[in-house]
Backbone:
């Protein structure tokens, strides 16, 4: 039985999406050796130029072109044990069904004046409950806003109990290092549950 054109096109598009997302997950992980984040001094062009191209893209390239140029060979990507083909297929299927708009809406906050105005309602307020921050040592997102981590640790979270950047993890730390992440969360929750139950 021959496949019709729509089925072939869908198959090609799905394969292209799979290759793209596989490369994107890889690039933002600790497995990609180009991830060596450092705190940025400020938001100048020279400082931002240190961030990999998958975050700060060339004006003439879209996301797919950027990932294709940076992504390693399928052999290297296939060696990623923390994201199986079956798991990747779930992401591809869902983003194929719903689009990626929801995830991109987060970034609209930074450029839409009406959304920025809403966030100003919380300016200067603090988080006054026990808090913790866990990130990946290879995740540039930790340093994307110069000085934000320091403000979080010193002023925004008045009861910051733990701050840790985990070895062997990039942006997907709960996938890349599930055991250390779970251990850190359980420790934090156990410590705070015990404290809240003391007379």
Residues:
């Amino acid at each position: 039985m021959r496949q019709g054109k729509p089925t072939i096109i869908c198959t090609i598009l799905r394969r292209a999406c799979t290759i793209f997302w596989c490369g994107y997950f890889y690039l933002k992980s600790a497995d990609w050796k180009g991830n060596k984040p450092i705190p940025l001094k400020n938001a100048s062009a020279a400082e931002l130029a240190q961030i990999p191209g998958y975050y700060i893209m060339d004006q003439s390239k879209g996301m797919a072109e950027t990932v294709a140029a940076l992504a390693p060979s399928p052999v290297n990507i296939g060696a990623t044990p923390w994201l199986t083909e079956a798991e990747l297929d779930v992401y591809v299927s869902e983003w194929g069904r719903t689009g990626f708009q929801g995830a991109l809406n987060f970034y609209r906050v930074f450029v839409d004046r009406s959304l920025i105005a809403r966030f100003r309602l919380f300016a200067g307020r603090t988080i006054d409950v026990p808090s913790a921050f866990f990130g990946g040592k290879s995740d540039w997102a930790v340093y994307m806003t110069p000085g934000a981590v320091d403000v979080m640790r010193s002023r925004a979270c008045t009861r910051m109990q733990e701050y840790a950047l985990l070895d062997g993890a990039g942006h997907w730390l709960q996938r890349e290092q599930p055991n250390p992440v779970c251990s850190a969360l359980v420790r934090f929750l156990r410590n705070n549950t015990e404290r809240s139950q003391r007379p």
Observations:
- The chain has one domain: 5-197.
